[in-house]
Amino acid sequence: MSDEVTARTLWNGDYYNEGSGKDGLFDKLKEECGVFGVYRHPDAASLSYYGLHALQHRGEESAGMCVSSGPDFNYHRGMGLVKEVFDKDMMATLVGDIAIGHVRYSTSGDSKLTNAQPLVFKYRDGNLAVATNGNIVNAPQIRRELEQSGSIFQTTSDTEVVAHLIARSPKGLVDAAKDALNRIVGGFAFLIMTNDKLLVASDPHGLRPLTMGKLGDAYLFASETCALETIGAELIRDIEPGELLVLDENGLLEERFANHNREHRKALCAMEYIYFARPDSDMNGANLHAARKRMGSRMAVESFVDADVVTGVPDSSISAAIGYAEQTGIPYELGMIKNKYTGRTFIQPSQELREQGVKMKLSAVRRVVEGKRVVMIDDSIVRGTTSRRIVNMLRDAGATEVHVRITSPPFKNPCFYGIDTPDRRELIASSKSIEEICREINADSLSFLSPEGLITAVGGDNETDYKGGLCMACFDNDYPTNIDFDGEEKFGCGC
């Protein structure tokens, strides 16, 4: 491949390695999106800014915020990181005590400003703003029906479908929202704001995380508890699957639009535990760092290998590597260092660095791994290209053996609920055996955590919840919802 062709492949946007939802060098899954909401706090915009900053890992392509001061909406959206989108002068214009905010990755909708959230509309009862994390699987079908009956869409985002369903309903806001939420299928966490109300909803399976906190008399909502912790809020609880909260001048009303039953089983995305959420967040009462340590410990029990050092791929696998080391007694060492500042650069790397692109983001610590048998802990293997690069990087640094341990089952199936996953044919585990993958990534040995081990590690209870209350469809092809609409397969986050 020529230098020119390689550069074109890896540099698709304004920035090297920016692309359009895919990373030319690294095949890690993209986090979905993050939402943050505030009800009745005088500094709603400031709290949302810090909350969104804490959720930045969930979406780095765009950020937005809408604030209600009663009669007016004040809002701003932009492409880039939270700190790039909002400055001091802009924050001064975002006046009000109700706010919703959003950080986004564009994985199925286009990466452009029109799709940045919150989406803001005028409708018969005033202003309406909507922010969501997730994906509506039947959005194309509903969109066609709405367009045929006269609706005009301004974006390619799934979120706009819900706004149209609410706006076209003859019912009041709450009942219209219930009807809309019952019409859509998928994984979603919604924040819906009017001039004086805030609605909060989680899909009937709880696929996407959403939590509630309090700061004084104000209520706050966030995709992860780390955002509540950042602003000093008290965690109250997780939003339950199928729950709809209504906050207005009458206080907090806890309602439901879908009941928890056999059809609507609890199924929180397993990848939140494995990879997406920050280690200082809690989910279902479990701390993510502790859960990942247990994954590493369980991995050591299931697939022990004698070695000299254990190291984890930064940052998401560090906790699991510590757990593996503690269980085996093999020393944990910082065998790799992550460079956090390579994502947005105008300088085109050399051909050598493009071919060994992982070194732009990860560096092996030669003095740690040279002459050693290394256990490399990682959270998942998607296409296999990143794993091969990392294994080869450790070998180039002098490792005599590299044994790879993955703290999740083999990732074989695409996600339809808000994760940017490639086509099934690109998932290496969908077509190759573990032995074949091991050879493909040039490892001395390879093992994956068992599904039972994962459920046990995150504290799931098979006695009360099917599969411990987790969605594991990416591992076992058992999707909690119907995913076939008019033969269309939709991938990634449609928000």
TrEMBL record:
Residues annotated to bind Mg(2+): S316, D378, D379
GO MF annotations, alphabetized: amidophosphoribosyltransferase activity
Active site residues per record: C33 (nucleophile)
Cofactor: [4Fe-4S] cluster; Mg(2+)
Listed InterPro entries: GATase_2_dom, Ntn_hydrolases_N, PRTase-like, PRTase_dom, PurF, PurF_N
Keywords: 4Fe-4S, Glutamine amidotransferase, Glycosyltransferase, Iron, Iron-sulfur, Magnesium, Metal-binding, Purine biosynthesis, Transferase
UniProt pathway: Purine metabolism; IMP biosynthesis via de novo pathway; N(1)-(5-phospho-D-ribosyl)glycinamide from 5-phospho-alpha-D-ribose 1-diphosphate: step 1/2
Amino acids binding [4Fe-4S] cluster: C269, C415, C471, C474
Function: Catalyzes the formation of phosphoribosylamine from phosphoribosylpyrophosphate (PRPP) and glutamine.
Designated name of the protein: Amidophosphoribosyltransferase
Species annotation: Paenibacillus lacisoli
